[in-house]
């Protein structure tokens, strides 16, 4: 089960404080192909990992843009998955590449949500914190899940936590994006990368 923790303070008192702190796990089958986080897009303005599963290429679970758009996605377990459903990762990719604000985008997604298997989606316009759409999240319904998938770090034979991500945004618009990724489907081998940039004014 993927987990996202975040805290935001639109007007921190201290100059050394962060407006946003986000930490996330991506739990996924080890054999599912993906790319580690790096910049992409028309002007290398988007930073995210990318799903490379056939038919789902280009989707992502977590990303941020230099224009201040952030989105994160978790799936929730269902008794049966619809094999013909659209890839949920495109929900994040579409938000990062569109000019729509968070609230408008989430309204559109709510009308099209039936096209996907179950998900939770967080979007934010970091140059418009706090985002009222975020404050409204989490009011739908909670589905019981298996205990082994409810840990902060999931470790099963073929499935588990593959990526840990921390995003920091300071009061001056500086972003630090740190990702720790499993190497070669091996839970004992990890690589950490850090990207830093400043939000465009």
Automatic annotation (TrEMBL):
One Gene Ontology cellular component: Golgi apparatus
Chain coiled-coil ranges: none
Protein's GO biological process: Golgi organization; protein secretion
Pfam families per the UniProt record, alphabetical: TANGO2 (PF05742)
Listed name of the protein: Transport and Golgi organization protein 2 homolog isoform X3
């Amino acid at each position: 089960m993927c987990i996202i923790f975040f805290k935001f303070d639109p007007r921190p008192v201290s100059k050394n404080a962060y407006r946003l702190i986000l930490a996330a796990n991506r739990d996924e089958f080890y054999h599912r192909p993906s790319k580690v986080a790096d910049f992409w897009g028309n002007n290398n303005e988007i930073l995210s990992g990318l799903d490379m599963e056939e038919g789902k290429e280009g989707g992502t679970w977590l990303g941020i843009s230099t224009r201040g758009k952030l989105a994160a996605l978790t799936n929730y377990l269902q008794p049966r998955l619809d094999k013909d459903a659209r890839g949920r990762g495109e929900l994040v990719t579409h938000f990062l590449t569109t000019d729509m604000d968070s609230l408008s985008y989430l309204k559109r997604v709510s009308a099209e949500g039936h096209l996907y298997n179950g998900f939770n989606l967080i979007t934010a316009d970091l140059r418009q914190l706090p985002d009222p759409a975020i404050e409204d999240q989490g009011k739908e319904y909670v589905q019981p899940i298996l205990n082994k998938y409810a840990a902060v770090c999931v470790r099963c034979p073929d499935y588990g936590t593959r990526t840990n991500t921390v995003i920091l945004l300071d009061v001056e618009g500086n972003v630090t994006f740190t990702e720790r990724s499993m190497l070669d489907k091996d839970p004992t081998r990890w690589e950490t990368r850090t990207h830093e940039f400043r939000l465009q004014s």
